[in-house]
Design goal:
The complex is a heterodimer of chains A (306) and B (247).
Chain A (H helix, E strand, L loop, with lengths): L10 H4 L2 H17 L3 H17 L3 H25 L6 E4 L10 E3 H27 L2 H10 L4 H30 L9 H9 L1 H22 L18 H23 L17 H29 L1
Antiparallel strand pairs in A: 1-2
Helix pairs in contact in A: 2-5, 2-10, 3-5, 3-11, 4-5, 6-7, 7-9, 10-11
Chain B lengths: L2 H23 L2 H25 L4 H16 L12 H13 L1 H19 L4 H16 L9 H27 L5 H9 L2 H33 L1 E4 L13 E4 L3
Antiparallel strand pairs in B: 1-2
The chains are: A mainly alpha (306), B mainly alpha (247).
Chain lengths: 306, 247
């Protein structure tokens, strides 16, 4: 099991974690609030500069592949279960239990719209997973005064994963050297054969947890006073500028929500989208504010050095 | 009745009330927002319990390690679709260590494993579902439910887990929010849910009792209460009675 995050030392990886967290949350909020297919496409396109500049095209691609499978699943549910829409393209004969199934043009367009919404959301989550170091993410959450014990627990769990992996590997190897075959047999046999490792892994790990608790106590866990870090994330003035850029996206979505821009009714009839000046300006501002943290990220290093 | 049970009861009552209100005045968005609010509130209450409760470094370390084991236990079974040993580990944790530890191991398992497997809209639903598995498992010893009952419980959660995590698709990407669309969404993963339920049953049948014994032993070894006699100040350890916490 390899960590999804790899430090590729690109401008996107160097961006402050707070900036990226706010940006990701804004894109997710936007993809939920916006219904309009054109604006959803633009939102998705705006995430691509992060992928290209962050050099995560291959890893991001596997997320997109998963989205395509999920889109097919979503399309089937919408077409079969939703009988809404006025343009019936296909009407099935009477089926047992299900009755007559009508596939409408509206349900197909709605499925496409929802697939684009899913693409935008998953793309944002992929950027979060692939470009933010889990330790930085947890430290940022702690600095934001969000539950300390929860974050600490997650942090210890992540820290122990490599050790547990070594344990797992050792246990598997020791069993195999004794001629124990794990991959043989049918479905039930394979599960039973593999399951034998878990109690040993648990026993080892519980001993480890006591050592870890003792280490925590000896380092003053539970005493009053602020928490200190070995590596503190530095926040420069440029970071504030990038955080402001990400926040502008939130502000835009709030305005759109108040003015009811970006909503679109798929049912009962598909209506053409009115391309007005305000619509074009909103679309333009959406692309600019969503893509700008990535586009301007190469400048951060230059400005910080100055 | 413990504080956590009162919180859980209140959360359930609020959930029912909100659902009744939404079903009367419901629209497409209110269902999504309402469900998300309920999930976030319930999880918030549980995290609050963990943050503010009397928890020592031993509990934090234990929860962290069990979450780590639970997350990596998915690896040897990656070749077998939907078979997830984490559900059985979370059930055993809730059974022995109680609702807070059960919830925390469940929620952290989803968070930690998705750092490796990839986060998505499903993360919060997985955190909630596995967390609730841990909370509900803590009720089993109180009801004196043992081996066969625990296996049935594991089978039921194989399906319930799938239905809860499927909600993210239904809420955000399916229209309209009717019982038939819900049924189709839940039904679409029936095969995977059955494999999950079957996996839980096998793990609990083969390893359930053994794992619970390991956890009980750990609990007895490291969680002890010192009860001093009030009439006389203890001058040496022989004046103290030491009892395991589960006695």
């Amino acid at each position: 099991m390899k960590l999804a995050y790899q430090d590729k030392k690109t401008p996107v990886h160097r961006l402050h974690p707070v900036c990226k967290i706010i940006w990701v949350l804004a894109v997710i909020a936007g993809s939920i609030l916006i219904n309009d297919p054109i604006l959803l496409v633009l939102l998705f396109i705006s995430t691509i500069p992060f992928v290209i500049i962050g050099k995560i095209v291959k890893e991001w691609g596997s997320f997109v592949k998963l989205t395509l499978w999920l889109s097919i699943f979503i399309a089937i549910i919408n077409m079969l279960a939703s009988q809404h829409g006025s343009h019936i393209l296909y009407s099935s004969p009477m089926l047992p239990i299900l009755g007559t199934i009508n596939i409408t043009l509206e349900s197909i367009i709605f499925s496409i719209g929802m697939s684009i919404r899913l693409l935008a959301t998953i793309s944002a989550f992929a950027i979060l997973t692939l470009t933010i170091n889990p330790d930085d993410l947890l430290q940022t959450i702690l600095l934001l005064k969000i539950p300390y014990r929860t974050v600490l627990t997650t942090s210890i769990a992540i820290r122990f994963i490599p050790c547990l992996f070594t344990d797992l590997d050792t246990l598997q190897s020791s069993l195999q050297t004794r001629g124990y075959q794990m991959a043989e047999g049918g479905f039930l046999t394979r599960i039973k054969r593999r399951a034998i490792i878990i109690p040993s892994l648990l026993s080892n790990s519980l001993e480890r947890s006591i050592q870890s608790a003792e280490a925590m106590e000896s380092r003053g866990f539970g005493s009053k006073g602020g928490k200190t870090f070995y590596n503190v994330i530095q926040t420069t003035r440029t970071d504030y500028f990038f955080i402001a850029l990400s926040l502008s996206l939130f502000a835009l979505f709030a305005i759109m929500w108040i003015l009811r821009i970006g909503t679109y009714e798929y049912y009962p009839n598909i209506t053409p989208i009115a391309i007005t000046i305000s619509y074009v300006s909103v679309a333009l501002f959406l692309v600019l504010s969503a893509a700008s943290p990535a586009i301007f990220s190469p400048l951060k290093k230059v400005i910080d050095l100055d | 009745m413990k504080k956590i049970h009162i919180f859980a009861l209140l959360a359930s009552i609020i959930t029912i009330i909100v659902f009744i209100i939404i079903s009367k005045n419901g629209s497409y968005d209110t269902w999504s927002i309402g469900t998300l609010l309920i999930i976030v509130t319930t999880m918030g209450i549980m995290f609050f319990q963990f943050e503010k409760g009397k928890i020592t470094s031993k509990e934090i370390s234990l929860i962290a390690i069990l979450s780590g084991v639970s997350a990596i236990s998915r690896v040897p079974f990656a070749a077998i679709p939907s078979v997830q040993p984490c559900t059985y580990i979370i059930i055993c944790t809730g059974y022995v260590f109680g609702p807070v530890a059960g919830f925390m191991v469940g929620a952290t398992t989803a968070l930690v494993s998705n750092i490796f497997l990839g986060h998505g809209p499903w993360t919060i639903f997985q955190m909630f579902a596995w967390g609730i598995v841990g909370v509900t498992a803590s009720i089993l010893p109180k009801l004196k439910i043992k081996s066969a009952g625990v296996i049935i419980f594991g089978i039921a959660w194989g399906y319930l887990f799938g239905w809860i995590t499927n909600l993210w698709i239904w809420l955000a990407y399916v229209y309209p929010h009717t019982f038939s669309t819900l049924l189709v969404t839940m039904g679409a993963s029936l095969g995977f849910d059955t494999l999950h339920a079957l996996g839980n049953a096998i793990f609990l049948a083969v390893l359930g009792e053994k794992t619970i014994t390991i956890f009980q032993r750990y609990k007895n070894r490291f969680h002890i209460k010192y009860r001093f006699k009030i009439e006389k100040e203890p001058s040496s350890m022989s004046d103290c009675t030491i009892e395991p916490s589960n006695s």
